């Protein structure tokens, strides 16, 4: 089983005719929007925020917040995103570790390095 035709095409030719392509997805008969749903999150800076269907939410989610996963690109784009979408709530989820790339220099965390790069241009309220 492969989730895309492209991924199936990367297998050796002798195996390709044995691979079924079944796209990743969600069964929308089972999982459907709920107009009354809300989500309350603990915020790393303290307190909580409550999100509802009426909130505009922009997310960045990775196992670890590191350059290899594009965290630096997202963070550098964030001031512009927030200017263009002033009512959006930004939700960043990920650990401080390193999955694939190099460790941050001098015992720092990639999360902090790229946050500090743009912090003065962010509305953290």
UniProtKB/TrEMBL annotation:
Residue span(s) of domain Glycosyl transferase family: 1-30
Coiled-coil region list: none
Pfam hit, one: Glyco_trans_4_3
The name this protein goes by in its record: Glycosyl transferase family 4 domain-containing protein
Originating organism: Nymphaea colorata (pocket water lily)
Lineage: Eukaryota, Viridiplantae, Streptophyta, Embryophyta, Tracheophyta
């Amino acid at each position: 089983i492969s989730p895309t035709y492209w991924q199936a095409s990367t297998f050796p030719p002798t195996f390709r005719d044995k691979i079924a392509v079944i796209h990743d997805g969600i069964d929308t008969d089972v999982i459907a929007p709920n107009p009354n749903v809300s989500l309350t999150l603990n915020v790393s800076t303290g307190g909580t925020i409550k999100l509802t269907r009426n909130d505009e939410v922009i997310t960045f989610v990775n196992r670890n917040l590191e350059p290899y996963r594009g965290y630096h690109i997202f963070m550098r784009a964030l001031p512009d995103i927030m200017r263009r979408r002033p009512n959006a709530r930004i939700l960043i989820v990920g650990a401080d570790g390193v999955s694939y790339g190099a460790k941050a220099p001098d015992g720092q965390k990639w999360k902090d390095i790229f946050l500090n790069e743009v912090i003065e241009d962010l509305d953290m309220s």
